[in-house]
Amino acid sequence: MIMKVFCPALLLFIAVLPCRALINYTFIHEAAAYVEVEETPYTRLCSTKKILTVNGQFPGPTLYVSKGETVVVDVYNKGNYNITIHWHGVNMPRNPWSDGPEYVTQCPIQPGGKFRQKIIFSVEEGTLWWHAHSDWSRATVHGAIIIYPKKGTGYPFPKPHAELPILLGEWWKKDIMEVILEFVQNGGAPQISDAFTINGQPGDLYPCSKSETFKLLVDYGKTYLLRIINVDMQNILFFSIAKHQVTIVGTDASYSKPLARDYIAISPGQTIDVLLETNQPPDHYYMAARVYSSAEGVEYNNTTTTAIVQYNGNYTRSSPPFLPCLPDYNDTNASVNFTGSLRSLANKDYPVDVPTNITTQLVFTVSVNTLPCSLNKTCEGPNGTRLSSSLNNISFVNPKIDVLEAYYYQINGVFGTRFPSFPPFVFNFTADYLSLLLELPNQGTEVKVLEYGSVVELVLQGTNLVAGTDHPIHLHGHSFYVVGWGFGNFDKDKDPLGYNLVDPPLLNTIAVPKNGWTTIRFKAENPGTGLVDALPSRTSLYVGNGHGVHSEKWPNSKSTITTATSRHASMLKPLSMLGEFLSN
User: Whole-model pTM?
Assistant: First the structure.
């Protein structure tokens, strides 16, 4: 196997990507398992179309590993489009070459090409996911990653009777590549989906869907661990189970203080582990999810996806099943109050290490923007413009080769290092009325260089440009502590006084609230090139992307981090079989 020497820096960016491929997952000390990514016909909402799948499965297969293991993945692209695969939330210590974002840590794998990825599971424990990182192919190319505790250890809560992933996604009747092409050409917001899904199925409330609704078969008096993943393209979702509370015990592969709630709010890319106690009279109960959409005047999918929690036994079931009460689609308080209630477990077995001696202060504005329409074209963005997005008023432009390779081989002209530490324009970011001149971002490929070992505080400030909305943010290569959040403009003198430095949640994905701010802290101890994925709700990221890049310079020693090899990692049953599996 040929492996490149690791890069002496870490860079942060924004991206999403396309694919069709044959993936060969070669687990160390195991026989190779060939996983084919191919077009497969699927029927949803009364019509059939071909979608891109892994092993013919939608959602894709689940990857099961234990903490500290390493998995080798050989990706063979046998399709017609470029491909990369990202391992969302896996830190990849000193191994940025395998992270997966196109044009950041690697060039895309062209049709007929291949690429080997070494997936190092180091400190993560819980639930993550993998997905295509090219355009919108991840709408169907995605799957769960379950990371069990090391052998000889267990969960910090009683062992559940059974567990399974719950993937919250969406479905378009139209071919997803057509959806992408349309909004790239017209510059407006992408077509909203036709349905939301739970484990790939729309559920009873959609036409031609009832017979295939996902069912979770349970026994009375048991506890089940649900590993919930939001694989939706851009939407924050509310999720609940009728007449049942759930207890949150983990987020983004990190354990949290038990938190009992009637519903959860989950950002795209985020994972939340919950315990479900089956303590209600035996019956059928809906689990349901629907969108949280805060942007005013923006079209959204107002439908509700359902699955069924079905108690085993003999009884007369209610018809229809009980439906949970979900917050209103625009209930901002319901969303932010849930997220603001999360806390790290923070005990002697699972301590926190919240950075306090900050050496690098950063403030990034997160904005929806507009770009001028091309000559002789008609665009559907505001005032005939093209929608875009930015961090600190810079909208990312894909380079011709990947940033990591250019950094390592010292190739000039691929990227710049002038990404600003603070907003280049200071104004009332959350004002109701803002000048149209502020909507136009600069375009470029810029990175932010950080010294290895830097202790970073990053304030993410939302703006009300174009349309104020929540901004889900994902950081590649690092988890971070969310030490504070609030509405309005961040006040550097007052707001830090309310930071939680005792037990803040450790996450890799967080939503910056509408017209508000979020502060995260992390140590820059993972050299390489990393991406900051910013997903402004209902905004095309293809036309222009906001990017914050940081590069960590290497310490004197370039020794790699050693982890145990994987002897029993496996891709197991498709989600459609898990309900039956749990009942056996």
Answer: 0.89
